[in-house]
Amino acid sequence: MPVTYLELENFKSYAGVQRIGPFLPFSCVVGPNGSGKSNLMDAISFVLGVQSRDLRSSQMRDLIFRPPGAARDETLSARASLVYVEPAKGEGGGEDTDDEAAGSPPKKSKRGRITGRIPQGKTTVFSRIVTSKGTGEYQVNNKTVTFKQYEERLAAIGVLLKARNFLVFQGDVESMARKNPKQLVEMFENISGSAELKGEYEAALKAKEEAEQKTIFAFNKTKEHKSERRVLKEQKEEAERFHALLQQRASLKSNFFLWLLFHIHSDVQQRETTVSDLQESLAEHQAIVAEKEDVLKKAKKEASKARSQSSAKDKLRIKLEAEVDKLQPSVIESSEAIAALKKRVASDTKAVARVEKEKASHSDKLAELEEQIEEYQEKEGELQKEYDELKQSEGGGVGSLTEEQEAEYGKICDAAAVASAALRRKLQSSARGLESARARAGKVMEEKKELQSRKEDAERSCAELTTRKNTLEKSLEKTRAELKASEADLKSVQKAASDYSSKRATIETSLDQINNTLRQAKDDRRKDKEEERILSAIAALKRHFPGVKGRLVDLCRPSQSRYNLAVTVAGGKDMDAVVVDTKRTAFDCIKYLRDQRIGTATFLPLDSLQVPSPESTERLRAMAENDKRYRLAADVIRVTDESVQRAVLYAVGNTVVCDSLDVAREICFQGGRGRGEQERVKAVTLKGAVISKAGTMTGGTTKEDGQKGSNAGRWSEQKLEDLRSKKDTLEAERETLDSEAGRGTSSHSARAEDARTAIGNLRNKEQYSKADLEYTKKKLKEQTALLKSSKKTFDKLEKEMADAEEAVAEANESVERHRQEVRDVEEEHYAPFREETGIKDLRAYDEAIGKAREDFVKQRTDIREHLAKLTAKKKYEDEKDFESKLAKAKKKKSSHESQLEEAEEAEETLLSEVSEIKAKLADAESTLKQAQEAEQEKEDVVRLASEEKKEAQADYNKVTKTMNAEDSDLMVLRQKLHETLQKARVDEVELPMLDEGDEMDEDDDEEAEDSQMTGSTTQRSSRRSSSLSATQESLSQHYSNREAPNVSKDRKEAGKVDFSTMDEDLKVRRSASEEDKLRKKFESKISKLTQEIEGIAPNMKASDAFDTMTEKVKETVDDFNTAKEDGRKANEVFNKVRKARSHKFNSAFKKIDAALKIIYTDMTKSSKHPLGGNAYLSLDDSDEPYRGGMKFNAMPPMKRFRDMEQLSGGEKTVAALSLLFAIHSYRPAPFFIMDEVDAALDNVNVLKVCNYIRRRSSDFQCIVISLKDMFYERSESLVGICRDVSSNSSRTLTLDLTRFDGARTSGGGEKRAADEEAESPVRPKRKAIRNQ
Hints:
Shape: flat
Number of strands: 25
Helix content: 55-70%
Largest sheet: 7 strands, mixed
Number of helices: 32
Strand content: 5-15%
Structural class: alpha+beta
Distance between the termini: 24 Å
């Protein structure tokens, strides 16, 4: 009981010194209007720090007592004191005690006396004084303090002045309900304390933005200086590189010519020695060749005799093989025919079973096709919607064009196409040239491949081994075919086993999914008794009257689950009506229900229902197709029987289903004015809101439609029934599959084992046949002589291939050049339009919109094509005649079985004939083998003699060829030595020399030099214009003779060169290809160095400028690092303040929101509504909530969601009080003072609020000013306010009601008011305390 007393002195209507109290945990202040109740509220507010402008006063002096009509007494001052007692430890916050407070005995004032119910604990007196001059003063325990100290002492006991968590004025409740989202956020900022960080937050944000700007400026400056330094660095490095390149090129040229001269001079000396040795070897090989030719002639005569004998034996074998081959096709044909007939019989058996199965599943297939057609029709609608949204979103990234700009853009495209037409023709011509060049290159490549192929064919053209090779290949092919068939059989068996496992796994997966769905849907729930009664009654009607179809809700279903509620609301009570065929059937059903006393029902006879005219329906459907935001309710309902479609049209009429309430308003009100009053429509939204034809609006469901939610869920029940049916079907299919697999598993295993055994035998046979064939093919490798004639042609084709590739490269370059010219011409037309529209990339615009349009058209075409296929397939399924098809299949099977028996008999006859001929063939082959062995021996002798002769001739030819090659190479080397020495002199290459003293006569040197230059020029000219023979003739004239003057002179000059300075790696002998690569490497390096030197224009002053700019870069980098560090610190400070502010706000929000839900539920609970209502708060921005707004919503029991302004006054008050109590629970003050908060509440809500306060009185003290007896009769004490006419001021009376709790509760809590009236003699015994 924190607030114990309130002492007032000359405050407003309270004259003199008055002590009001004591206040118990639940105290009510009562009194007539004008007695001073609100002034008491102002006094409490004043002493707790509320400013005078909030207390119906313009200045402090207005708070001093002044009788009505009297002049102000300038000597009077006002004072208000509040005695606050902290509860002692162990004392219950709301429990009453008769013990006196610890310390000195309570005092009596001269105007009254106090009770003995003062709590024990520390006492604090808060006082606030208004002097006679109108100034204010704050005191704590009669000690003057500052306002800040006063506020801190109040905060120490939980009283927050800014948040006002202790006080509710007369209009605060209504104001709380009217607060907008921003005001709610401001209030929560004060409550949570996050408002204290607002200034710090804004300052930190400003500092963060300024630091970021400084960092960006420093970064740009650093980037600019670094760019300038980079340019100077490149110029400096370029000058240094220029000098290094000059030195590198001179050194590279010297090494190159030393390498050339060293190897050429060495090769010349080596070749001269080799030629001399070869001339002696040539005479010896010529004698050996003559001797081998005589031996070969004798061996050939003996081999000819053996070949004649073998040929006679082979003719007999060929004759017998021909007879076998003549019969073999018939055997193979018979075997294949039997196998084919067996397959046909098996296929016919399967066909009969398949037709029977198709006949059984025909209706299911038709239903599935209908569902697929509906699904793809829905997909087409969704695709159109997605394309509209995509077109709006995709165009935003690159800009958009108006219709006029689109037209202008089309003209510009046409103009650009006309302007670039000539260039495009050139481009096309270049492209054709490129294709032609590529074709020529491809042709050369094909010729090379063809030449290679001819060479390979020549290697395989060995006539002597053709017969044996063909025989082996046929045997191998037959073995492989049998192996392939066996492997196919094994795969077939394995596939059958795999299909069984896969199919069973699929069934298990489907069953698991269905079981999970049924568990989640609580499949074990039972229908209520009323539903079972209705269903049993309808079942009885169906049994007695065939014309009964069933309830409309069971005969139809929305096409999508989102339409469930809308269709239920549109159909209304007719959804529970029973559909019958005729009016006569309806009358019979009604008579039956009356006679059996089952109940009542509504019937819809199909022959007499009035439905909307087709014209009006089609007109609305056409409008709905143009506007995808709504559609006819009849179009979103699917019926199981087309005959009940008329009942659906009667139930929903021309009602339209809209996506939102705004669309419904537009259709009913704006669209209605355009169509006229006679064509008004009824609209239903997806959430259940209704706009009738008369214009009335109904939100959600009403009491009369209380069962619509359950009706909307019946379609979900139908889905569960379908799932249960599917589950039974799958389980039966699994059992059938398991029973078949039980017999088939062992069969699969046995067949697989047989197939593996056969495959093993066939692979062994294949391996032996392959080894024999490989031995035969080895002999074909001897035929390699044909490769020699192909080399010259192959070299020519390589040269042509290089020319063709060069032509392709040139044509490709021409195409790219013309393509760039076309782009430049088009850019001249597009640039002005791009600047006008602001679209930087017109191609990107075309790609963004055009691609989406193409995709949309393509996808829509695919969907429509698939729909056409499904429609055709359905039509095809409808036209199927299974009876004739089944009879035909059985007849075909019988025919094939008879043919199979005939074929098996014919095969036995053929096999016996083949066996007899094969026995004769085996004897002939044995005789032939002996003759061939004798022939082979003679042939081996001939072959050995021929090989020896060939070897001798080859050795002779090899020596001759080697000697000719050496002579030719020697002449080329001597010429190359001369040209290298001359080129070194021309290029002014400084070569190191051994002796520089011996110089030839100057005239002789000039004459020899002229002669060499003339000879060299003649040779080069000859190579360009003459053939190879002319070149060889020229070489022989000048360099064939070792003692020729020019040869001798070049040899001497080469001998004077000092090769000791040459790198050891360059002295190593390399292959021709490696030397060619090394030469090209030297020449490439020298050429690149020369080009690089010529392309350099060095800046010799770049080094000094680079050093200066380096210093500037260092300074700007330091500035940037400083700015970056400042920005980081500012960002850290900002994030810290932001997180602290958000944390304070969110902490308060979460706790208050949680408390609000509990409090509102408690305050709205009743016996009729045991669950109570629901209230909650929501934020626009959860990360930084103080930057957005906050919404406060409440849903009273049995009412749908509405905005706060749509609630009644009492509902708003209860919701606002709940929020106030929730705020109080977050920052709980020890007491809560409310001024007539029950003004807008009816008795029921007053009782709820009163009971809640009474339950919470143990948590905090509550002082309420109220005029309603229901409030103060349930309080623990009363403070009465009355008007003292004599002094024209307010007086108070205090009554402790806890002394009468025993009498009050003896008759029961629910009849307390009646009991108190019956015990009226007790009431006068209550002690009143008048404060004099």
